[in-house]
C-alpha cells in the first residue's frame, strides 16, 4: 500500500455522494487502502471507492448484486441510488450497511457456495475467471524478496499458467465468488451472507472450494475435522479431483505475492512474506504450515 493509495479519498467521497443525493458529512472511514470503504452515519449506507481503472469491475459488481437479489441468495445489497458513479477517476458504489456480523464458519462458506453453484449460469456479463490477475505486477514489486526467490516465483507462475490452460475437466462452469473465505462470507443474526463481490466471474466451482482446502492443507487455518465438515456440507471434496494441485498452487502463489506486495510498505509483514516463500520452496518442511494473516 503506498501513501497515495491509502490517503483518504474525501474529495471523491463528497462528489460521489452529492451525485446521488446522499449526505457525506460526518462520513467515517472503515478501511483506507487501494479500495476504500466509508460509512455514512444515520443513513445506513456504505460507500466503496475503488482504485482508478476499475470501472468495469464496479459495473460487474452492481450487476452481480442485482442478480443475487433476484435469486434470493443471501448477500450484501445495493443501496437504492443510481450506480456506479465515478469521482476523481475512481468508480464508486453504494451498499446497504450490514447488521452486526462476524466471519462466517467453514460450514457457512460451504452452505453459501452450494447455493450459489447450483444456480443456472446468469444471463449477465461476468467475464471468465482469471486466477492470475495482478500476480505479475506483485512479483515485479516484491522488493523485500531476493532476486533468486523472485525468479523462482516467476518460474512457478509460468508453470501454473500453462497448467491452468491445460487443466483436467472438472465440474461444469458456473458463477463463482472468486474469493470465498470466511472474511467474505460472513455471519449475521439472520444467518450467513456473501460480501465483497468484486471477484465474481464465470468459472470452475472448484476454484471457490479450493480456498478452504488450501486453508486446511497449506496454511493450517482449518483443522482436518473442520475440513471434513466443510466437505460434508457441500457434498464434495475438491482434493479428490485431479486438477486440485493446479488450483491449489495458484491460490498459494496468490497468497505469497499478496504478502510480498504489502511487505514493501509494511516492514512488519516482510517476515511473513519470506516465510510463505520458504514454505513453497521446501525450506520449512511439509505442510500444513502456520501462515499468519496479512491485513
Protein topology:
Blueprint: H1 3-6, H2 10-20, E1 28-32, E2 36-40, E3 45-49, H3 55-70, E4 85-87, E5 90-96, E6 101-103, H4 106-117, H5 135-140, H6 147-165, E7 174-176, E8 185-188, E9 191-194, E10 201-203, H7 205-217, H8 224-234, H9 244-263, H10 270-280
Antiparallel strand pairs: 1-2, 2-3, 3-5, 4-5, 6-8, 7-10, 8-9
Helix pairs in contact: 4-7, 4-8, 6-9, 7-8, 7-9, 9-10
Description of the molecule:
The chain contains ten helices and ten strands. The protein is an alpha+beta fold and 295 residues long. The chain folds into two domains: 3-97, Phosphorylase Kinase, domain 1, CATH 3.30.200; 103-280, Aminoglycoside phosphotransferase (APH), C-terminal lobe (Aminoglycoside 3'-phosphotransferase, Chain: A, domain 2, Alpha-Beta Complex), CATH 3.90.1200. The chain has a five-stranded antiparallel beta sheet with strand order 1-2-3-5-4, with helices on both faces. Residues 1-5 have low confidence and may be disordered.
Strand order of the largest sheet: 1-2-3-5-4
CATH class of the largest domain: Alpha Beta
Class from helix and strand fractions: alpha+beta
| CATH overall fold name of the largest domain | Aminoglycoside 3'-phosphotransferase, Chain: A, domain 2
Counted by DSSP, the helix tally is 10
Strand portion: 5-15%
Q: How far do the termini sit from each other?
A: 10 Å
Count of discrete domains: 2
The CATH architecture name of the largest domain reads: Alpha-Beta Complex
Helix fraction by DSSP (H/I, runs of at least 4): 40-55%
Number of strands: 10
Poorly predicted runs: 1-5
The CATH superfamily of the largest domain appears as Aminoglycoside phosphotransferase (APH), C-terminal lobe
Note the run of SSEs as H and E: HHEEEHEEEHHHEEEEHHHH
**Major sheet description:** 5 strands, antiparallel
Shape: globular
Amino acid at each position: 500500500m503506498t501513501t497515495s493509495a491509502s490517503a483518504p479519498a474525501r474529495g471523491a467521497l463528497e462528489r460521489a455522494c452529492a451525485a446521488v443525493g446522499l449526505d457525506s458529512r460526518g462520513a467515517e472511514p472503515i478501511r483506507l487502502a487501494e479500495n476504500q470503504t466509508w460509512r455514512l452515519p444515520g443513513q445506513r449506507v456504505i460507500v466503496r471507492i475503488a482504485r482508478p481503472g476499475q470501472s468495469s469491475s464496479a459495473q460487474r459488481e452492481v450487476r452481480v448484486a442485482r442478480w443475487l437479489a433476484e435469486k434470493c441468495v443471501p448477500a450484501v445489497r445495493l443501496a437504492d441510488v443510481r450506480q456506479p458513479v465515478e469521482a476523481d477517476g475512481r468508480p464508486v458504489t453504494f451498499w446497504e450497511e450490514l447488521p452486526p456480523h462476524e466471519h462466517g464458519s467453514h460450514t457457512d462458506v460451504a452452505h453459501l457456495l452450494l447455493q450459489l453453484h447450483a444456480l443456472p449460469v446468469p444471463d449477465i456479463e461476468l467475464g471468465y475467471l482469471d486466477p492470475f490477475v495482478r500476480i505479475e505486477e506483485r512479483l515485479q514489486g516484491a522488493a523485500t524478496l531476493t532476486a533468486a526467490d523472485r525468479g523462482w516465483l516467476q518460474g512457478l507462475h509460468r508453470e501454473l499458467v500453462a497448467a491452468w490452460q491445460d487443466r483436467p475437466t472438472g465440474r461444469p462452469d458456473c458463477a463463482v465468488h472468486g474469493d470465498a473465505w470466511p472474511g467474505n462470507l460472513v455471519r449475521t443474526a439472520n444467518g450467513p451472507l456473501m460480501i465483497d463481490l468484486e471477484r465474481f466471474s464465470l468459472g470452475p466451482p472448484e476454484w471457490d472450494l479450493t480456498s478452504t482446502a488450501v486453508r486446511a492443507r497449506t496454511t493450517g487455518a482449518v483443522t482436518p475435522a473442520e475440513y471434513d465438515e466443510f466437505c460434508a456440507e457441500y457434498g464434495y471434496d475438491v482434493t479428490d479431483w485431479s486438477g486440485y494441485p493446479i488450483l491449489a498452487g495458484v491460490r498459494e502463489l496468490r497468497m505469497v505475492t499478496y504478502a510480498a506486495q504489502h511487505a514493501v510498505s509494511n516492514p512488519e509483514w516482510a517476515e511473513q512474506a519470506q516465510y510463505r516463500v520458504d514454505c513453497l520452496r521446501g525450506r520449512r518442511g511439509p505442510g500444513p504450515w502456520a501462515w499468519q494473516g496479512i491485513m
